[in-house]
Amino acid sequence: MEEPAMTDVSASAAAYDPVRAADDSGAHGPHRVVTPGVPDGVTSLPGPAALVGRRAERDLVDGLVDALPRRGGALLLSGEPGIGKSMVLRHAAARCQDARVLWACGVESEAVLPYAVLADVLLPLRRHFGELPSAQRSAVEGCLALTDVAESNPYAVCAGALGVLAAAGESWPLLVLVDDLHWADPSSRQVLQFVARRLATERVALVMAARRGRQEDGIQESVPQTTLGPLSDDECWTLLRRQALDRTDRAADRIVRLANGNPLVLVEYAAALARARACGTEPWDDSWEAPGPLVERAWRGQLRMLPARSRKALVYVAAGRAPQWPLLQRVLAFDGLTTADLDAAEAAGLVRMRDGACELRHPVLRPVVLGQCATVRRLEVYRRLATLSSGELQTWYLAAAAPGPDESVAARLVSDARQARQRGALAAAAPAWRRAGELSPDPADAARRLFEAAHDAFYGGTTRDAAEWCEQALTRSQDPLLTADIELLRGQACTWLGDPGRAHQLLVGAARTVEPVDRSRASQLYGAAVVPATMDGRIRDACDIAARCEALADGMHGTRRRQAAVMRARAEVLGGDVSAGRTTLLALLDETRGLTGPEERQTTMEIAQGLSWTGDGDLARRVLDTVIEGVRRDNAPALLPYALLARCQVEMWSRWPMARADATEALRWAEEFGHLAMTGYALIQLARLDALHGDFADCHKRVAQYERWCGSRLRGLAMFARGALGTSAFAAGDAEAARTHLEAAFALADEMGLVNPTLMPWVADLAEACLRTGAREGAVAVADWLRERDTATGLAWPAAAHARCRVMLARSAEEAADWLAVAERVHADKEMAFEAARTRLVAGEVLRRFRRPSAAREPLLLAQRTFTALGAVPWAVRAEAEVAATGHRSAVHGDEPPPVALLTPQELQVARAIGEGLSNVEAAASLFLSRKTIEAHLTRVYRKLGVRSRSDLARCLAHAGVTG
d(Cα 727, Cα 740) in Å, to the nearest integer? Predict the structure, then answer.
């Protein structure tokens, strides 16, 4: 194998120098920047005829690329090794003639290097770093080790990466191609996933390829995907004809059968057949049909045909992390080998030289080569590579070479993990901690390091790894205090993985175990168990453990005491003791004013949500506004899904556009974080909004999504799902189906121990559904329950709902009018626009039934106007029919929906940010979007609202109740 000439490397279009690329990136106009690891052949990109089949995939890619001058987007290609993902990426590059193309590729051996793939994408665009807000620029430069930072914020890195790509796309359309995403480092994968969801308004397209089944924690639905399947028989023969084989060749027929539609297997078998025939033999024997992956089976045959010295030298290439030529020469010399021993492998197409490094032709070859090497030999190769390396690479070579526990290597891994954590690369720090734990001779050190691995995995977004590594840490921990900390993290991981029942059991068990040793930790564990208990539909258990949590916190000060008190107060409110819980929450709110740390902010959010259940919606909204503004400002979105959904609960009573905007953004973040429970709750909230608007198909689609993701594991959400379906059925006029769903929801609430009607906004619908289906006694029972809840809680909603039930159950027009007056007094004190309109509609129907059309007309007209303004289409239609039945002959047109109802959820969030006084750059940072996306949304907002300035926009939003 000849040493590459330096002139060849620098002249090649495939060569890449990060520094030179960064300096040259100011050139205007389309050009290609090719980064290390680009699929072979990218410099001579194939034309459309080079790709066999794949019509559907080509259409998707062509649509994405052709739209680049106007808009952007993302696409994830998945499939088995060799199925043709890289060829589709090459097709995209060939198609893209009027845009800049950036290539990057995940390399298995470099997956331990934080932000390695992100560096390949961003460094050629370095001149655009100066266009970022200072916090984002600092985070991006820190994660790429361009500057020193005390601690990098991973979400500031995500937002900064988006900003860089958006700025580059604004200068010239940009196509980013990422191959072998499954082998990219975890930190880069997290950033790319974040960016992929936010490119619709940018002139940036991102196409990624990954192996099927190698996706991370988190729900990926919002990133368009397509899976490449096998080629058809005709397409297989088309490919083989390019290899000079046709249907008359029996060996070729056998290749088609063995390949099972995998194009790489077809090509490799055809090449092996050609080489064998050149030597005058046919290579067929039983080994060609041995069990195992098709691609590996094809290459094993080629490896057996290599000389022994070539196979020996090939192990160094497979074990090395794309070894540079000088390193390869030196390490081969350990075994008395030279680079010439790789000539046969190069001739067979198994290795190639690129950018001064020797690498395997395809990543799948690595496990094949190493799998045929004895363990002792493989460890020796890693040790020799470590001897000639330095830094993080040397650490990982030493870790790979360790046959058993080794504290010196573990200590080096700990140092690397801490540095990665400082750069905000938690997803990269986690595996370093984990390997350090595995290599730790002392069980106590192993337990602590595995716990650190789980911690960084949990906060880095890989919750499933966190749960698994907690299990491993527990088998080594002998310290009861450390065990308690591990159990706390494991319980939190189980909660967000959608198994709250197990989380509750684990946390309570751990609390009881540690209680005699450390009351503070026991209190924390009991407090953490309240949330999964509630999610699992165990309100009574939640009340009991919240009380124990607070009892153990007695005498403590600061955050720990406040957290315990909050959990107790929230449980009381859900369990029916609203007055006591409200008093505590208001006192705690006063204590937390001005506290802005992450824990204090979460506590404030939980207080505000609790107050939304006590009827203090306006106060809760104001507090949640402050919390949301704070987490946006600090680039710390982990709390956003919870805070947005809490605010959505308040807005659902009257401000539907804002509720939809919050629930939509919460869903996006919950999916981003892989939090199953929050994803399910956001879907249900959106389903209820769909039902209220009359979008019945969308309602059922969202509930089906919830059931697909959550199943029966989140019993606490089942009540909300049945409530949404009941609301949908009732709005559609199917009282029988509505009664079935709402009776099930009411039974679930009773089983859970939930007796706070604020979380049951459909309860009056249940009474009406019973009445409309002939079950008057059922309606009376619901009315009696609401009366009792009104007396016990003093809440406005059960009082209003009870009054509505009495209206519909009235035996005379006078009785109906009296109860309508009661309801109107309640609604005058609490903003519940939709529910007030529903009561007026019921009253109008009842009064008309008692032959009082004149008395019925006014409440019906008021109801119709409210329904129309809210966009509650089915209810507006029903009210209009009732108005006509009263003999009202003039044209009846309700108030038009407010202009903000014309905005999409994202447009409304942008409008809200600008209306609150943020600049475009500040709004972009706050909403984790690019400046161009803000500008594009703002243009549409101005057009839809008919405003021309920021001051006009602020007045419009204040008038609609969005701000102020």
Answer: 11
pLDDT at residue 441, rounded to an integer:
96
Per DSSP, helices labelled H in 180-262 are 186-196, 233-241, 250-259
Single-letter amino acid, residue 837:
A
Residue 615 phi, psi (nearest 5)? 90, 5
Q: How far apart are CA 289 and CA 557, in angstroms?
A: 70
CB 475 within 8 A of CB 486: no
| Least trusted range by pLDDT, from 43-47, 70-74, 690-694 | 43-47
**351-354 and 225-227 strand pairing:** unpaired
Give pLDDT tens digits for 98-114. 889 999 988 776 777 88
From the number of C-beta atoms within 10 Å of its C-beta (0-12, 13-18, 19+), residue 802 rates as: buried
**Spatial distance between the Cα atoms of 411 and 692, rounded to a whole number of angstroms:** 59
Q: Where are the alpha helices (DSSP H) in 230-334?
A: 233-241, 250-259, 263-278, 294-304, 308-319, 325-333
Computed on alpha carbons and rounded to an integer, the radius of gyration of the chain in Å comes to: 32
- In order of 486, 732, 945, the CA distances from 942 in angstroms are 51, 35, 5
**Within 10 Å of residue 961's Cβ, how many Cβ atoms?**
15
Tokens at 327, concatenated: 């390193």
Q: Are strands 351-354 and 73-79 parallel, antiparallel or unpaired?
A: unpaired
Asked whether 155 and 928 are in contact (CB, 8 A), the reply is yes
Helix (H) or strand (E) holding 416: helix 407-422
Rounded Cα–Cα distance for residues 424 and 156 (Å): 9
Q: In the predicted model, is pLDDT for residue 221 greater than 70?
A: no
Structure tokens at 43: 């410099």
**CA pair distance 803, 197, nearest whole angstrom:** 47
Terminal alpha carbon distance of the chain: 72
Q: Are 635 and 155 in contact (CB under 8 A)?
A: yes
- Dist CA 19 CA 114 (whole Å): 19
d(CA 518, CA 515): 5
Q: Which residues contact 892 (CB under 8 A, 6 or more apart)?
A: 861, 864, 880, 883, 884
pLDDT of residue 902: 85
Q: Are strands 204-211 and 174-179 parallel, antiparallel or unpaired?
A: parallel
Using pLDDT thresholds of 50, 70 and 90, give the confidence band for residue 144: confident
The per-residue pLDDT for range 679-704, each reduced to its tens digit, is 999 999 999 999 999 999 999 999 99
